[in-house]
Amino acid sequence: MLKLPNVKAVFDRKKKSSAVTVGKVEIEITFSRTQRKILSSGVELYANQWEDGLVVRHANAKQLNKKITDLIKNYKGIIRTIAQEGEDVTYQTFSAALDKKSGKYGTDFIEFCYDIMEKRGLRASTLRAHKCTLETLRESGIIRTFDDLTPANIKKFDTWLRKQDPDREQPTIYNYHKRLKPYINEAVALGIIEESPYIRFKVDRGRHKPKEALNEEELAAVRALDLPDESLSKARDLFVFCCYTGLAHADMDAFDFSHDVVTVHGRNYIDKQRVKTGTKYYTPILPPAMAVLEKYRYSLPRFSQQAYNRLLKCIGSLIGTKKNLSSHIARYTFATTVLLAHEVPIESVSKMMGHTRIQITQVYAKILNSSIEKQAERLSEIV
To answer: Which residues, 6 or more positions from 267, have their beta carbon under 8 angstroms from its beta carbon?
Structure first.
């Protein structure tokens, strides 16, 4: 039986690691006594974090061990393919096969990601999230080719995510990075790049801040503002429209009255899929929202999200609130002040909001103290 090259992980080949200095974990492929190929795994550890061929005493030990195992499986797969095609598995044939596999993508990193994504068999909701991440990366224009995959550019992308939408919280930003990492690790495994830029750029998971909505008095104050400035007036009207429909900025931007609205028993409803998640939502167009549509002859004005949020910040200062008005706050206001505070069942709220899971809607319910107070008042009368 033909003996195939041995593939294994080796740590600190150059004997550099210590308690304060990291050493590299590399994949060693032995073709003969005189021929070996050393490939990067992108994993670096301190001396006490490698034991019996495994990552230990590391916060991400499980993920790093899986990454190393996947790399070994990938290289063994290439070796098997060469052997099955009847060729000798040598340093040269392996290197050629590896170059062929990695080279078919040219220099386009995003095209590479889409190709890998299609092969991963992701669930529909996960697939949408990954596509959203890649299109956001494309929009940033910071990372296009494999050569762009540097720690400096990852940091630039992180900064861009924060500036592009100031309402993005740290857990959301963390998820963008989390979805990118598997594709970068695949590029390392294929030898397209030597190491992951995330080795030198760490992203904190973070925590979601409590979500704030406008109360009835604040919402009334926004509606009552006399705004001679045309841009401020339009932004206020769009905000009111979203406060009474729950539309996110992307959904409002894509809204088309003639295609997205159905009339049932004389009442208009928006019946559409959310841009971000593809989830269906079905929500009534309440009178304040309909008044906005009528004002603009059923064709809403448009602003970029950055410009819109900048105008909303001015409007917030005009009504004297410390809350940072944004497209997200309009959505929270619809869920809490407009719906939950008026005892609309949480299942209906979830459908109107287009949430993928009712647990997401329950987060909105938690921030509404008035609903607890109402229930307490009822209980006091009963008991």
So the answer is: 284, 285
CATH fold of 216-382:
hpI Integrase; Chain A (1.10.443)
Report pLDDT digits (tens) over 124-155. 778 888 998 999 999 999 998 888 999 999 99
- Confidence band, pLDDT 50/70/90 cuts, at residue 116: confident
Per-residue tokens: 226: 């006399």
- Cβ distance 299 to 287 under 8 Å? no
Q: Can you spell out the DSSP letters for 286-339?
A: -HHHHHHHHHTTT------HHHHHHHHHHHHHHTT--S---HHHHHHHIIIIII
Interior CA angle at 112 toward 110 and 118, to 5°? Answer: 105
Query: Which pair of tokens denotes residue 197?
Result: 């830029």
Closest to 71 (Cα-Cα) out of 13, 28, 114, 127 = 28
According to the model, what pLDDT value does residue 263 have? 94
Domain 109-200, CATH number (from 3.40.1000, 1.20.950, 1.10.150, 2.60.120): 1.10.150
The structure's pTM equals: 0.54
C-alpha distances out from residue 25 to 50, 199, 366, Å: 9, 12, 46
CA 47 from centroid of its chain's CA atoms: 34
pLDDT at residue 370 tops 60: no
Which residues, listed in sequence order, are joined to residue 108 by a DSSP beta bridge? Answer: 145
Domain boundary assignment for the chain: 6-103, 109-200, 216-382
